Amino acid sequence: MPNYTLKINGKSVSFTADADTPLLWVLRDELDMVGTKFGCGIAQCGACTVHVDGTAMRSCQLQVSMLDGEEITTIEGLSTEGNHPLQEAWKEVDVPQCGYCQAGQIMTAASFLKENPNPSKEEIREAMQGNICRCAAYNRIEKAVALAAEKMS
Amino acid sequence: MSTQENKYTFSRRNFLRASALASGGIMIGFNLFTACKPNVKPSVDVENLNFNDFNAFIKISDEGYVTIYSPNPEIGQGVKTSMPMIIAEELDVEWDKVHVVQAPLDIKNYTRQLAGGSQSIRHGWTALRQTGATTKQMLINASAVKWGVDAATCSASKGVITNANGDKLGYGEVVKEAAILEIPENVTLKKPSEFSIIGKDVINVDVDKIVTGKPLFGLDYKEEGMVYAAVVRPPSFGEELVSFDASEAKKVSGVIDVVTIGEKARNFIESGKNNWTFKLSKSDKVVVIAENTWAAIKGSKAIKATWKEGSQLEDTKLHDEKLLSLLEGDKFDIRREDGDVDKVFSEADKVIERTYHSPFLPHNCMEPMNFFANITAEKVHLVGPVQTPEYAAQVASEMLGRDLSQVHIEMTRMGGGFGRRLYGDFVYEALEISDKIKKPIKMVSTREEDITSGIYRPAIKYRIAASIKDGKITGYHLKEAAINDNMYGLIPNFFPAGCIPNYKVSTANYKSNITTGAWRAPYTNFLGYAEQSFFDELAQELEVDPVQLRLDLLENVKDTEDKRIEYSGKRMQDAIRLAAEKGEWGKAKEGVYQGFSAYYSHNSHVAEVAEVEVKDGVPVVTKVVAAVDCGIVVNPTGAINQVAGGVIDGIGHAMYGNLTFEEGKPSSRNFDGYRLIRMNETPKVEVYFVQNELSPTGLGEPGLPPAGGAVANAIHKALGKRLYKQPFIEELKSNVLG
């Protein structure tokens, strides 16, 4: 199996994996970073969202062999103290029910707010529609994204 | 404890025991589930319990910090937060001094260590309060001894005990003394007006871990030496394994081995010792064992298996025909009958009859099914997300021929349950795999496997008829035709039982080889919509306001002495009036269309007003106002989250949820073909609670059943079209939108 070195959450990490292994499974099984979740494996639910060079992407679709030299951020590295404005907003609004999809929701929202720091309600609803929350905590996710935008401005 | 009868009388001594910890502090053990159901015969001699016999604990450290071990599995319904809140309230400690830990399963003393039916809070309410209050009294008694005063002159609040002289002791300062005192009987519980934690918003206790991605869920669990397992199950319901070729799978790098399982499951089925949580096919299954999940999944896709038809391969067309013919036929069980429905139907001015159709639904928990198992000569160690750990332990013990005391189950937080994790099929597969290869394993299902080998909400059809005479509803007949099982428990006695003098519920079922089971608010998730749509039509026919029609009918049940009727006419009316007021019923702006629905389920009363607007010819649900009577609201922020989620879940599945079958095979396999509601399709949901001081009831399910009906009724107002079939989107496409 080939060796890879990736920059994840600011640190250089080496591991062996098959070339076609999705980043999702490298994170979860090889690197013990389990915050990035497996939901569907076909980029439809958003539970596995990470940032590649700051852009939200579905880690279930990213083969490790394609990621050479890219900067990857996962939920574990979104902030050093778990205090990114989105994480703070998520707590304040008490968003999670089961909580499984929330890391993916936060990662999608973080990338979105970087592009659009002052989104309208409609823009939030469109930007977040790729992330499924089966508990349907959608009202609170929407509210928390808006609150985080406020905190960041 | 001298007589046999006394032996099982509920007493503090029966479920509480305290002892000093070597590390400092006190541990209070209590048997919550014996306490919750005092008439249940304990499985062990309560006089000789030791600490291992308890299933819930409070630990108080010398510094006064309190750890509460929460007994019930957490599936997103919030009990890991709300159940400890109830203890902390009566214990009278500040919430920021409380740390909550998930307790493991106690297989000896369970009576209800499960998540299901929205019952955790309802059953736990009194016992949790008594536990907190008893512990507080022990700390007060210990302080009184220390001060040499009468305990009655002391009081405790916020972790501090005070006596008449104004002396103060922290809980942590008297824990050692408290641990050796007699457990007090007859403690006084707080009045609801004295609550300082219950009724306040307490944020989900796991929120920090959730938003920072810490391991919490079953899929996150790991042990040294663990390997991964992917299971190849029959692709169609009714098929069985004939043979397989694993040569390509074994070439996948990371694949360790390919084995089959199924023998232990078959033996269990054939033993006749069935358990309701056991739903596995008799077929052998192929299992790919690998070093990591990806290799296991890849390997499982490379298996070339041959299957044969073991029983009929069914399809949706067949189900529709069977259920319709049941509705037309006369093979019904009569579940409730009041008066003479046939007579009033024959004498009526008009009889209205409608038929409502629903499809199969998969649960689609966001966390796919998975479980860890490590079967060794010493122990059966199982870890993962399961709503019914005690049943899983029993089946594990039977399947493996091991003593129940050797089975150890740890519950992880669950990435959704919705009823799917009531069934332990994934536990039983995992243990059979580990037993076979003698290694710690993690069984992981993909989304495709979850959707196609599910334990589904079955397809059901309702035919509802009502007779009208002189402008009044005189008779009501509900017929249910369902796959595999029928409505359970007291559902035949729900509204409008007791409201209409001639009333009948008849049920029939068709046995299918497709596995079915509970799905969030079983039966009522669809019945609520069917019934409440029907009442909307009745109101239209009678030319009365739909809200008024329900209020008037509910007058008739207010003084009922029928013990089978557990819903309350008054509480339902309270919820209806609150929803109508907060939802501004009848005062919608132009272009906004309202629909009303009210439904009692799982011991809570809920009424909802849905608003629909038509955008580009498409009805869009923009707002739902829900009013709920669940008694005392333990944790308002959690309660609102549950109801709002239930409403949107109900709308999402009524609108889009649809699993059809062809030749025994589900037609959707993943979220590209199976539609779940997404944020841009969700209404704003406002939730209000009827204020009273009645004992609390659950909220995981009750918000869902009324939602589909409120939306269908609003769509009718908007488009003039009644919806009789779920998912609505199909009917809207074919009938309304052309």
Instruction: Kindly provide the name of the CATH class of the largest domain in chain A.
Output: Alpha Beta
Largest interface pair? A-B, 59 and 67 residues
Helical percentage of chain A: 25-40%
Number of strands of chain A: 5
Oligomer: heterodimer
How would you sum up the global shape of chain A? Answer: globular
Q: Please tally the helical runs of chain A, counting DSSP H or I stretches of 4 or more residues.
A: 5
Mean pLDDT of chain A comes to 97
User: Structural class of the secondary structure composition of chain A?
Assistant: alpha+beta
Which architecture of the largest domain in chain A would the CATH scheme give at its second level? Roll
How are strands sequenced across the largest beta sheet of chain A?
A: 2-1-5-3-4
The N- and C-terminal alpha carbons of chain B lie at a distance of 75 Å
Mean pLDDT of chain B, to the nearest integer, reads: 90
Shape type of chain B: globular
- State the helical fraction of chain B: 25-40%
Strand content of chain A: 15-25%
Total helices of chain B: the number is: 21
Query: How many domains, in number, for the residues of chain A?
Result: 2
Count of domain modules of chain B:
3
Radius of gyration of chain A: 15 Å
In the CATH hierarchy, what is the architecture of the largest domain in chain B at level 2? 2-Layer Sandwich
